[in-house]
Amino acid sequence: MARTIAVSGSASGIGEALAAMLRDAGDTVIGIDLRDAEVCADLSGPEGRSHAVERTLELSGGTLDAVVACAGVSDFTVLPVKVNYFGAVALLDGLRPALARAGAPRAAVVGSISGTHPVDAAIVRACLDGDEDAALRAASKVVEAGAGNQTYSSSKSALAQWLRRAGVTPEWAGEGIPLNAIAPGVVRTPMTEPLFADEGMFKIMNEAVPMPLNGYADAAVIAEALRWLISPANSHMTGQVIYVDGGAEPTLRGPEVF
Ligand code: NAI
Q1: Residue 194: helix, strand or coil by DSSP?
Q2: 3-state SS, residue 121
Q3: I want to staple 6 with a disulfide (CB 3.0 to 4.6 A). Which of 30, 70, 82, 235 is the partner?
Q4: Is residue 235's pLDDT more than 90?
Q5: pLDDT digits over 124-165, tens only?
Q6: Using CA positions, which residue lies closest to atom 23 of ligand 1?
Q7: Which atom of ligand 1 is the closest one to the Cα of 88?
Q8: On the CB side of 118, how many CA atoms lie within 13 Å of its CA?
Q9: pLDDT digits over 154-209, tens only?
């Protein structure tokens, strides 16, 4: 049966691949992105987030079968905290009532293997407290100290922790809404193009994300995994972060973590 699914980050990379796959299967996709989307909105701030939620509710008629928060940025500024954490959580929280009205609702986010890398504890704590001002102050300090790469890892770690907490609450599990993440390793998309183009960054990336199984992934590989997470078949998995990363996570964390 055709479903109505909201996908943020639908204009590029993984979100674009997922949106195309879902449309090919006959679903209605409400894409949310800065541009080239059914809903053009900037998820880095409160106004854009509210607009994204309101317009998506209008276009869906108030009921959504699934929501995928895929939009993200990877740079050494405070922006990853705004978009990857607060943008994703605001979208999911804002659209949750529309999910609760569907017969077999599903929600997913795109995390990252980076969520297992070193993080800044103050950023993560402030994110989980829902205190964006404090999170951005902590992120600014980290950037000033020259550890800007930790704004991205912290945003993705906080997102994973948020969904593990939220997934089992009355608002999500109690309403029958599975909430999970796919955490990719390195995926060939416009986001990673600069890393492939720079010899130094390329080396750092390969050391940080070892992928013994089949190397770098295409966006379609991650989209397929997301597609299953949000399918009616996924009735009993929630609060999970699924690493689709060529084996990076067990390589980095070892066999004792599971
Ligand atoms: P991409 O750069 O191809 O696509 C990201 C999309 O998000 C773009 O269309 C962009 O316009 C949108 N976006 C960015 N900021 C936004 C904002 N403020 N408001 C609304 N939309 C915004 O990147 P890719 O690779 O497809 O990334 C998708 C997700 O996958 C991101 O959350 C990223 O962190 C995650 N990821 C990507 C990996 C990779 O190797 N490419 C690895 C691990 C995670």
Answers
A1: helix
A2: helix
A3: 30
A4: yes
A5: 999 999 999 999 999 999 999 999 999 999 999 999 999 999
A6: 191
A7: 32
A8: 6
A9: 999 999 999 999 999 999 999 999 999 999 999 999 999 999 999 999 999 999 99
**Eight-class DSSP state of 81:** I
What's the 191 CA to ligand 1 centre distance in angstroms? Answer: 6
Cα(257) to ligand 1 centroid in Å equals 27
Cβ-Cβ contacts under 8 Å for 247 (sequence gap 6 or more): 210, 211, 212, 213
CA distance 101 to 95: 10
**Domains of the chain with bracketed CATH:** 4-116+156-246 (3.40.50.720)
Tell me which of 38, 74, 221 to substitute to probe ligand 1's pocket, judged by most ligand atoms within 8 Å of the beta carbon. Answer: 74
Could you list the active site residues?
152
How far apart are the C-alpha atoms of 37 and 214, rounded to whole Å?
32
Q: Which residue has the tokens 């070193």?
A: 118
Nearest to 14 by CA among 148, 181, 155: 181
Q: Give the residue among 132, 130, 204, 213 at the shortest CA–CA distance from 165.
A: 130
Atom of ligand 1 nearest to the CA of 184: 43
Q: Cα(84) to centroid of ligand 1, in Å? A: 9
